[in-house]
## 1
Amino acid sequence: MSVAERAVGGDTGPEQETSDDRIAFRCRSLAVDLGIGDYKRRIIENLDIEVPRRQFVCILGESGVGKTTLLRVFGGLVPAAAGSMLEMNGERISGPPQGAVFVFQNYVGSLLPWRNARKNVELGLEESLPKAERRSRAMIALEQVGLSDRANDYPRQMSGGMQQRVQIARALALRPRLLLMDEPFGALDAMTRENLQIELRRIHQASGSTIMFITHDVDEAVLLADRLIVLRGKPAAVGLDIVSQLPKERDQITTKEMPEFLMLRHKIYEMLRGYGAPA
Amino acid sequence: MTSDSVQADRGSIGAASAPPLRGLLPLAIGLLAWQFFGPRNVPYFPPPLEWLRALDALRISGSLWPAILTTMSSFAEALALSILIGSALGILLGRSETVDRMLGPSLEFWRTMPAGALVPVAVLILGYTESMTLFVVTLTSIWPILLNVRSAAQRISQDRLDTARVLHLSWFATQYKILVPSLVGSIQLGTQIAAPIVLIIVLLVEILTQGSGIGREISLAQSTFRSSTVFGLVILTGILGLGVNLLIGLAGSLLRNYATNV
Amino acid sequence: MYQRINLPGLTFMAGLVLLWEIFSRIVGARLETIPSVSKILVALYQIAIDGPLFSQLIHTLLVSIAGWLMACAVGLTIGLGIGIWRPVWRYSMASIDVLRSIPSISLISVALLFFGFSSKMEMVIVVYVSQWPVLLATAAAVGATPKSYLESAKSLRLSQRATVLKVRIPSALPSIVVGVRLALTLSIALAVVAEMVGNPAGLGFGIVYAQQAIQPAQAFAYLLVIGLVGWGLNLILMLVVERFMRNHAVSS
């Protein structure tokens, strides 16, 4: 049993469900503008997406198409244009929604260097939980990412992979219903990335969170996702939206040899290269 | 992403941007309020216009310009000397670790010495002379330049020095073409910090010794309770201070062009 | 900091002192104004035991430290306001730049007008002038808090208060410390100067009195004490800072 699975025995699942508990996240006619005054451009147009609970969604697209912007809109860090409908668990999003956490690509900038790993993980809990419970939640989260023995170390004492794991632990400690991850493994070396991919998949299975994950790495996306969305065009729209038929249990070797894997991969590359018609 | 940065920027300053002029509003409003609503005929609260009149009276009586001249020439002399000595010492300390360690503690002590305290002692030894003023001001103002040049000198990359040796440059050419341009930036930075200090200490000496210059005029006006004159002169020193800062900043931009073109 | 005793440094200082002693004895006969080291130490002993040195020392220390603490409080508060809210910065920064350009020395004359020869005058000057470095350092550093930290805080839904206390201030701390150290140097310097021109109390008054009474050894003794105060307080501050900021490395 993995660390993540062991942790499920306790109370690591997401918080109380609301009435409409099939759909974790929904947006309709979503449009996003960037820039001010004369330089205002419509980046994203008319997006309709519904994400059911517990789904692992990977969002792909060419560089600059607007994947990061979209995720930031979902995370309440960037406002949507007028006329957009954006909801999480039935509530409109304006500002970072309760129950959603963002994991940034730049781990160096997001961890506070004057706090050790455990205190960094506790950062999001300090306003809502008493000390003892904070500490135990933080330690559980650190264990989920395999860093419980480094709890007292400072970011500068850790490698890039470890720092990113601390950031992920910080997000997990909040027991989020929705986890938004912006190319979190992009800055890491190949081996660390592969280990974290599998670990993330296990954490997802065990915790029941919904995950939206951005990457430009097609193989990574197909390996991790329950559902793949490819953005295309200027302004960006959904080019491909496909549910993966791959089994729940995945690994770096056998999964990548399955016909389903290759088929998904093929379709995505087609869409990215511009051969397929937008959905 | 522009919008992202605008979003995230909310509540934070652009680090190095010049403050907008509308920031002068509080000051302007304050001065106007003082002028029109300030207590009348209270001795120490003269309205701002009075200050200008007092300054003008001083000009007419012939004391203003000589005072400005005296102060500013002391300033210029002391600044030049500070730059020379500060840079020289900075280079010496930066390039030679032995000397740095030897002189270190002694200099540390002098660096933290409150400037004014030197004046009575200097007066006893050197009397009320120009060289006394120069001595005190220089001793207290070399530190920013010294420290900046020292750290820059410590950090001159070995590559540059090796370049000089490989090209068989003479000692003189090495100084001129490699060493000095590398240090120009730190000298300028140190000068920018030191200039206001030089002005302050010059005024300080003038006030303490009541010798000559603007400091003397301020001290005189204060002891005879001519408050408008005091305020007027204070504003004058402020303007001089601003002017000095602007000039040094300008010199800095010019020098930066030189340093990159060499 | 001074992990190993700086032998060359200490030797050099001792050498200087020795040279001074020899020089002043040789030349001293003619140039009475440069007293020998031994004479200075004697004078120091005299003002300490029989004289007003301790009360003057306490006065200067009290005014410097109290004024410095107040200056830090004021500078930090205003600096935070300017650093956090852009509109505040826009509508005040230019005025602040103008105000702080006025040489602090000229303001002593203004303070003398308002408060006369008193400790109040001394305090006002110390606080007014010393808070500028703290204010400016705080405003600049807090305003330049890296966006990535702020976004993390926002994404974790930290309250405004928590963001300021847990992110902005710690991030700005190294710069604020620089400002605080500068403020201490200024506090001491201004207290001494204010005592020299206005408030007949403290070490500043002591040294001026010695000068006017043409007592060079005494004047030098005061100079030594003042120098030690400046050096000592700075050292203590630096040790305290290093102790508390050991783990504070902030990646620029």
## 2
Amino acid sequence: MNTINKIMVVIDGTPQSMTASFYSIYLSKLLDAQLYAIYVINEKALNELLKAHIFIEEEKIDYEKEMLEDAEKYLNQVQSNAEAKGIYVKKIIKKGIVHEEVIKTIVEENIDIVVIGELRKMISVREAAYDEMERIMRESKCVVLIVKNKEKVEMLYKNM
Amino acid sequence: MSLLDIVNEKAITTNLQALEKESVIEELIDLLVNAGKVKDRTQAIQDVIEREKKGSTGLEKGIAVPHAKTSAVDTLSMAIGISKDGVDFNAVDGEYSYIFFMLLAPPGSSGPHVAALAEIARLVQPPLIREKLKNASSTQEVINIIAQYENGG
């Protein structure tokens, strides 16, 4: 019996996360696993900017709306790429602290593998404390797969 | 996100000449023009000033973060300017602003724009960093201060 039933890819709009999505589609097909794609709107950062007076309320609302549109755009792109290979994707959009929402969703949906894009090179100690992908990698209770090598991954996807 | 990824050394000055709000904005945008980051100077100035009209980005303790979404740039771009005399930027605490971070983001890049602004907000929290930046005398010194902060120093 297949013990890897659910794979979830974390999308944040970076090219790295989109490469991760191609590999998650490949893996989902290979393992016959259900694929989830999650995008978390970084509401914490928006609130911090409002508190610091860098944002005004109108701007926060505007950016939140744009981030929601971005989330939909990127998840639709993942969905379209997956459907092209006969894979169904369950799309999830959440708001909050990115790594916390991802980790909560891993538990809620009983995810077996979470897939993230390649981490930044030479990340500093301070950056690591704020880097959401780094924190997902460190704090997730399920298997975390970090996808590297864009060209090879895209070739795998293309040849599926 | 590392702020050093979005700032070009040509877009840093420790000797801002401007003494008024609008001219500071123009001088910072000119740094980005010279760094090859801004393709439409007039549009960039207009978008930053429009944003400032809605509420000043002069924060407390000598910091200002003028920013805008603008089609005048293709990528998220930052300029840093230090004014020795200070400028009345209508800051929230009524004090002069000495350290300016200008951030321009193309439409559709709200995630990285927010991440960069949040990183600036964290950078200027420690009083020692603010003091070092205010007293910096060269571009390289500004870069070193940010690098040291980002490396946990």
## 3
Amino acid sequence: MAAASYHTPRLLPALALLSLGALLAVALSVSTGSVAISTAELWAVLQGEGEPLHHTLIFDLRLPRSLAAFATGGLLAVAGALMQVLLRNPLADPYVLGLSGGAAVGALSAMLLGLGSAAVSGSAFIGAIVSAITVFGLAHGTGSWTPTRLLLTGVVIAAGWGAVVTFMLAIAPTESLPGMLFWLMGDLAYARSPWPALTTLLALSLLLLPLGRSLNAMARGPLQAAALGVAVKPMEWSIYIAASLLTALAVTTAGSIGFVGLVVPHMLRLILGNDQRLILPACALAGGALLTLADTLARTIIAPEQLPVGVITALLGVPTFLLLLYRSR
Amino acid sequence: MRRLLVVLSLLLAHIASASSERCVDDDRNVKVCLDAPAARIIALSPGATELLYAAGAGDKLIAAVSFSDYPDEAKALPRVGSYNRFDLEAILSLKPDLLIGWHSGNPTEQLAQLEALELKVYYSELRGFDDVSRTLRRFGELAGSEPSANAAAEHFDQGISALRKQYQNAESVRVFQQIWVNPLMTVNDQHLISEATRLCGGINVFGNLPRLAARIDHEAVLAANPEAIIAGGMGEENRSWLDDWRPYSGLLAVQRDNLFFIPPSTLQRPTPRLLSGTRMLCQHLDTARGRR
């Protein structure tokens, strides 16, 4: 496989193909559900005619949910790719530095207090940001920080959040347990409005595009990056802040959905090579498409009953990833 | 002389206790036998606490688990942990003569451990209306409070059969029973709530689902288009779940304003309060019939 070159001729065709895949995923998600809607009926609804029930189903339930799924998947995959560059560790994912733990403590506290879903989202976001600031502040300490130090701080903080989450589950009244567990497993049913996540995904992807060259240098190590004229410290800061913000928004939208952020960037690197200018937008598209498909399956396989989406992302992703890894040797 | 009196009284006490030996079947159909009426009972589920009070055995109750909040006296009882993880040492130190366990809710190993320590454990598992009055009678027998227990059981049975009679020929109403909001959850026909719904002439639109408590999506509710939506709430007063349905103006239940709230503790727990919850449910369904 060709090493990451600085001129990727495959950029446009690859992105065009992924965009097509993403569009198909959203289209499939909008057209399937526990109520069967035929293509003709779907067409009528899209033209503003058709049954009111179908109109409600498509515009009030399915479309916001699949857009939210797409945005969440995209956010997680981009955040994962950034974390892997920042920490130079293939095991890094958006949650490795304890962000999802902080968000979980926030969300579960709101649930324990019996607050509504807006408060749950709000406190999840606050929890994630508090966690990000804590980790960064502590890793910074009195001296300089290294990726190893940041990683260790994050992993230990994550373990701390984990203990708090377990404690909350242990003392929670029985009737709030299902809600808490589904939040922890990740669930698109919470998604209210897809727009904050979707606009952030788009904006940050566009902002990161011009940084692709510097990110490529960063992926090779700070010394090489510095030699290539990249301002390493500010760059590390921006990557950390961007990844934290993306992850915080993702968990706020749909709880802590695992797996997407770890595996999608790796999958794409195996296929497309490690050029961040291509990988980041590709992550946004492929992560979004994967989660949209997974969510569609999760809500239709045993409809009207619903499965947690995390089950499906792993079931789809694990064999795909293993196959790619096996073939790449 | 004094020694003789002591011996005599001991003997009498022995005879008295021998004659008051009592045995009941628990919900596993295992005999639970006591030499004398239980005087130190620990209830290992909030439901058991409520049933013991209703059976007139509240004064024999020496401890309960967390969330045992009904009746008010129960809140003052010492706690021995939660229903899913209790403190064996605390239980032993209180020297109970009877434990009321919850077959499907308590950890099996902990119950087995308590039995291995020679404590009497009654396993309760209530699934329907009949179980409520049967359990009340059994608790009365175990605690020696038969008169009030039997009266409570009688009152419950009569109330339920009156409702059954009143609504047996009522026109059916298709009902969506919402038991949780995030995730949206309902129950199938095996659940107590559905037994109450059937009694009031209602049909649970999700009765055929395979799981007792199932997680569903909004789409399924819109497709089922129930005539009435009955919701419990996070608290005993919270009606906000029902307001979430109002934007779906295509729903028959919304068009006719058949969105009803029933405090979850009166309809979702197999205790004597089930009578008032069922009565409320029947009235709501009758209101729905009136809006046709």
